[in-house]
């Protein structure tokens, strides 16, 4: 997550309000692009709860070329703010944690592996 807390709060509030106006329902869940909620942006969980989100699926509990939060639990957990986090699923492959959702590996793996 490359934003500062104020920008993140303002843009997320604007987006949530816009979506709620369109669908005429409460938006309860949040997912950061590229599973970008990482150790350095844990502050976002407090802002998400403050904005009325109940849950998030924004953490990749594995190493990643972009973000990743390898120290995060592999199972759903609750942030101190009360926000429930449902981390991206990972599998252990030869002792290495690897996500099997999202398209990041399709962008970084050699083409022959993707085809396989």
Descriptive keywords:
116 residues; alpha/beta; four-stranded mixed β-sheet; two-stranded antiparallel sheet; 4 helices; 6 strands; globular
The domain tally reads 1
Count helical runs.
4
Rg calc: 15 Å
The parts where pLDDT drops under 50 for at least 5 residues are none
Q: What's the SSE pattern? A: HEHEEEEEHH
The average pLDDT value, as a whole number, equals 88
Content-based structural category:
alpha/beta
Major β-sheet, in short? 4 strands, mixed
With strands numbered from the N-terminus, the spatial order across the biggest sheet is: 1-2-4-3
Q: Percent of residues in beta strands?
A: 5-15%
Number of strand elements:
6
The proportion of residues forming helix, as a percent range, comes to 25-40%
End-to-end Cα distance: 32 Å
Query: Could you state the oligomeric state of the chains shown?
Result: single chain
Shape: globular
If you had to describe this structure to a student in words, what would you say it looks like?
The protein is an alpha/beta fold and 116 residues long. The chain has one domain (5-115). Helix content is 32%, strand content 14%. The chain has 4 helices and 6 strands. Helix 1 (5-23) runs parallel beside helix 2. The mean pLDDT is 88.
Topology at a glance:
Elements: H1 5-23, E1 29-30, H2 43-50, E2 55-56, E3 77-78, E4 84-85, E5 90-93, E6 96-99, H3 104-108, H4 111-115
Helix pairs in contact: 1-2
Compact overview of the structure:
This protein is an alpha/beta fold. Helices cover 32% and strands 14% of the residues.
């Amino acid at each position: 997550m490359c934003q500062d807390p104020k920008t993140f709060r303002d843009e997320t509030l604007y987006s949530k309000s816009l979506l709620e106006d369109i669908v005429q329902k409460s938006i309860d869940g949040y997912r950061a692009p590229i599973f970008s909620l990482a150790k350095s942006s844990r502050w976002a969980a407090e802002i998400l709860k403050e904005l009325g989100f109940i849950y998030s699926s924004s953490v990749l509990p594995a190493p990643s070329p972009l973000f990743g939060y390898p120290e995060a639990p592999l199972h759903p957990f609750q942030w101190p703010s009360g926000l429930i986090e449902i981390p991206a699923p990972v599998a252990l492959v030869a002792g290495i944690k690897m996500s099997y959702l999202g398209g990041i590996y399709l962008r970084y793996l050699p083409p022959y592996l993707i085809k396989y």
